[in-house]
Design goal:
This protein is α/β, with parallel strands linked by helices. It is about 40% helix and about 20% strand.
Length: about 350
């Protein structure tokens, strides 16, 4: 994954030489944008959301607003300075390799800080939440395939379907008497140990994926509001049976979704690349960008686009999006549900997600 770097500096001569050298040496690792005027840079920086912004000292005399999702560092004149007025400092008068190492260190610190924040109360568990960018693009199947892949890698994983009318039973099967309705009941009654009841209701597919059978009535899921969701994930943190939780949810704008994005290690919105699906997905992404300006929990750098059922003839990727794309899954014609899961679980996108931390 490339580091998105923006450099804000009025010295055009230095900036030009620095940019040329950095791109020449580190084009595979850095995605660079440069600006010479602070006022003109704000809109583009907010749109592109760089990971790191290097700003010359003179332009840091006044606080920079609107860059909450980026790590700001001072492009300093002084050699050896590690901080300047509360900002981490990178001396511009050193070898390009040393400057790149400073940028890479800042990026690593940013990712570690976000990962700790996103893991929330679940300690080392990683929550990956799948949302549909538009109806019928196979977001649920992609989420289930991700769970299957993780189980194949000997990872302990829970597939958690929280859709209003969704059922995990469509993808996974195992014997058991209790369903997700029992989980909601345990949370509602605030019993002394709801986690015990929740663990008892779990089922385990032959492939090693834990799941809950769907509620007897879709109306039961209406009880799962933002407060109940918080209780649910708090209690899941008590159950020591899985390290990954793959969540499949309906998308809507509001507190419940914002908090789910906040507690997620990564949020994946799925499109099939069709004109209609991409248009709907773009509107959702735009809404999240606006919400992120007021919601500290929404870290836009941890929201990704996945293309599913993607065809070379009728599928097109969204152009100019500031959201990172994690790859695509081809369309598999005439495949049944279980064959589809098996084929999708072999896709390299899930391997990269596991190896690279998305």
């Amino acid at each position: 994954m490339k580091i998105r770097l923006a450099v804000l500096m009025s010295d055009q001569i230095y900036l030009s030489g620095f940019a040329d050298l950095l791109v020449l040496r580190y084009a595979d690792h850095i995605e660079l944008s440069v600006f010479t005027q602070a006022e003109a840079s704000v809109e583009l920086i907010q749109k592109n959301r760089p990971d790191i912004i290097l700003v010359e000292q003179a332009l840091l005399e006044q606080p920079l607003d609107g860059f909450a999702n980026s790590r700001i560092a001072c492009f300093a004149e002084e050699k050896g300075a590690s901080m300047w007025r509360g900002y981490p400092a990178v001396c511009k008068y050193q070898k390009i390799s040393a400057i790149y190492q400073c940028i890479a260190d800042l990026y690593a610190e940013k990712m570690e800080a976000e990962a700790v924040k996103l893991k929330g109360d679940l300690n080392s568990r990683k929550i990956v939440t799948f949302f549909s960018g538009a109806g019928g693009v196979g977001a649920s199947t992609a989420a289930a395939a991700c769970a299957c892949f993780l189980a194949q890698q000997k990872e302990r994983v829970l597939y958690l379907n929280l859709e209003q009318t969704g059922v995990a039973d469509q993808f996974f099967s195992a014997q058991g008497e209790e369903d997700f309705g029992k989980v909601l009941y345990a949370l509602e009654m605030s019993s002394a140990s709801p986690a015990i009841r929740m663990e008892h209701a779990l089922r385990k597919d032959d492939r090693g994926v834990y799941f809950y059978a769907g509620c007897a009535s879709a109306l039961d899921m209406a009880e799962l509001d933002a407060e109940r969701m918080e209780d649910l994930f708090e209690q899941l943190g008590v159950i020591d049976l899985f390290d990954w939780i793959i969540v499949d949810m309906d998308f809507s704008l509001g507190k419940k979704i914002y908090e789910q994005i906040g507690r997620s290690y990564a949020t994946i919105l799925v499109s099939d690349g069709s004109v209609m699906a991409n248009a709907k997905l773009e509107r959702k992404l735009q809404a999240l960008e606006i919400a992120a300006q007021q919601q500290e929990k929404i870290l836009l750098s941890r929201i990704f686009i996945l293309y599913n059922r993607f065809g070379s003839r009728d599928g097109k990727k969204i152009e100019g999006s500031a959201f990172k794309e994690i790859g695509g899954i081809n369309r598999f014609a005439d495949a049944g549900t279980q064959d589809l899961l098996r084929l999708m679980a072999q896709n390299k996108v899930f391997q990269e997600m596991l190896q690279e931390g998305i």
